[in-house]
UniProtKB/TrEMBL annotation:
<keyword id="KW-0067">ATP-binding</keyword>
<keyword id="KW-0235">DNA replication</keyword>
<dbReference type="GO" id="GO:0006261">
    <property type="term" value="P:DNA-templated DNA replication"/>
</dbReference>
<dbReference type="InterPro" id="IPR047854">
    <property type="entry name" value="RFC_lid"/>
</dbReference>
<dbReference type="GO" id="GO:0005663">
    <property type="term" value="C:DNA replication factor C complex"/>
</dbReference>
<dbReference type="GO" id="GO:0016887">
    <property type="term" value="F:ATP hydrolysis activity"/>
</dbReference>
<dbReference type="GO" id="GO:0031348">
    <property type="term" value="P:negative regulation of defense response"/>
</dbReference>
<comment type="similarity">
    <text>Belongs to the activator 1 small subunits family.</text>
</comment>
<comment type="subunit">
    <text>Heterotetramer of subunits RFC2, RFC3, RFC4 and RFC5 that can form a complex with RFC1.</text>
</comment>
<dbReference type="InterPro" id="IPR003593">
    <property type="entry name" value="AAA+_ATPase"/>
</dbReference>
<dbReference type="GO" id="GO:0006281">
    <property type="term" value="P:DNA repair"/>
</dbReference>
<dbReference type="GO" id="GO:0003677">
    <property type="term" value="F:DNA binding"/>
</dbReference>
<dbReference type="Pfam" id="PF21960">
    <property type="entry name" value="RCF1-5-like_lid"/>
</dbReference>
<dbReference type="InterPro" id="IPR003959">
    <property type="entry name" value="ATPase_AAA_core"/>
</dbReference>
<keyword id="KW-0539">Nucleus</keyword>
<dbReference type="GO" id="GO:0005524">
    <property type="term" value="F:ATP binding"/>
</dbReference>
<keyword id="KW-0547">Nucleotide-binding</keyword>
Amino acid sequence: MADDMIVDSVPRSLSASQKGKGKVDLNNGRQVKGGPWVEKYRPTSLADVAAHKDIIDTIDRLTGENRLPHLLLYGPPGTGKTSTILAVARKLYGAQYQNMILELNASDDRGIEVVRQQIQDFASTKSISFGPKVNVKLVILDEADAMTKDAQFALRRVIEKYTKSTRFCLICNYASKIIPALQSRCTRFRFAPLDPANVTERLRYVIQQEGLDVTDGGLAAIVRLANGDLRKALNILQSAQMASPHLTEEAVYLCTGNPMPKDIEQIAYWLLNEPFSTSFQNITKMKTSKGLALVDVARELQPFVFTINMPPTVRVQLIDALADVEYRLAFGTNEKLQLGALLGAFTRARTALVAAAR
Ligand SMILES: Nc1ncnc2c1ncn2[C@@H]1O[C@H](COP(=O)(O)OP(=O)(O)OP(=O)(O)O)[C@@H](O)[C@H]1O
Ligand SMILES: [Mg+2]
């Protein structure tokens, strides 16, 4: 038997048929030409992963010493969870990558049968390596919060039984959707939303690689709209630069259909100073001419309210009312009625302000 030969009878169809957002180019880090930038600029090594220094360092050390525990990576979308574990797999196995991992995501069937059969089959076949280090295999369960409770319960025993030869990595957005028994078997790492400095740095890198013309204002606007989601940032950058090669702040807001900060300032001015009917007409006119959605306006007004000087009680009521408007709009209610409610909230706040000033 040749060195490093792997005895493994599991059909590879599962990891080869990945679909959906977790889809990754498995050809050992060969970058995807053309196509969406989120895939083109997916980090191939742990060093490429932006932010999360502590987590990456810890995982890097554990993989280096071949002491990888079972992992639970969780956090909001687009923060690098899938990218991190794939970089780990590349580091651990190099060219043998595809033989040593089983990746299942929400687009694959992961009911109780899959856990019982495929994962067990994969985990129970021994990988015989004659190299210096004994490699354990890796089962990656991406979007694990979409797994049924039954499947999660079935996984408990499977994890324990095959700990010797296999490591499991569960990835999800909400750790609370993973049953406590599974959580306690894993080392948890939370991927927080990326901070603006890290998003800016990564975007600068892409801008330089692609040779784009983006103003500072445009870059700041993308970072602001992305809200710590690097996938979203890259998607905005790609679509906005197609729409306008010279990317300014205005172009970014226009392309994404978000209200400009100066529009919000204008709307807030009307809300706080003009009579009810004038505000109603002005805002309606602006919404039609600029194609704004009321839900975006309500969301952007909220941070603005924090910057206006007013007594805390008035502010609290206003924020509460804005949240209600946003909540109702999320269910597709009538925009006109909700605009009325928004104006009503500000009218009440104005009355309270006048009373407080006396
Ligand atoms: N920390 C990061 N460093 C570098 N690139 C990142 C990072 N986070 C996200 N990205 C970019 O965003 C894309 C999506 O990242 P990834 O698939 O790792 O997100 P995720 O955390 O798994 O999100 P989801 O919860 O939606 O599955 C990557 O292809 C990469 O281009
Ligand atoms: Mg993912």
